[in-house]
């Protein structure tokens, strides 16, 4: 398995596989942030929109892949309010059915956290549905549940709970990417 960061130029190469991953996750009720049944076209459009954000370094995107194709993906949203410049939001962590419970999500999060530290982010957060499998996963990765106000404009998906993790500066050993 290989973890790869995509950019605006490489995203189209994997768009079809990412689209299938999103549609599969949605059909199985595992795609946080898409409260409706997402169709193929909607999934494609979401990745087309993402290309612009990648080009402007507003988001980062990783995939996990093996010889059979894309197994998982995760995004880091770097657009935060001016009063929280050292925070970033984790979006759309998805792992395909054939790769679940094999450490793919954990490796994607680990790579995301390492990059976030290199970018001088000191807090990561993700919102999710209360009681979901995602809650147990994030707790196992060292994230803690935070108080969350439903009226907050801060989180993109407006789900029920927010998990956060403070990153340690000592683990940051590489120069900033941007």
From TrEMBL:
The keyword Transferase appears for this protein: yes
Superkingdom of the organism of origin: Bacteria
Residue ranges annotated for the N-acetyltransferase domain, each copy included: 1-168
Gene3D superfamilies named among the record's database cross-references: 3.40.630.30
Keywords: Acyltransferase, Transferase
GO terms of molecular function: acyltransferase activity, transferring groups other than amino-acyl groups
Keyword Chaperone assigned: no
The protein, known as: GNAT family N-acetyltransferase
Organism encoding this protein: Rahnella contaminans
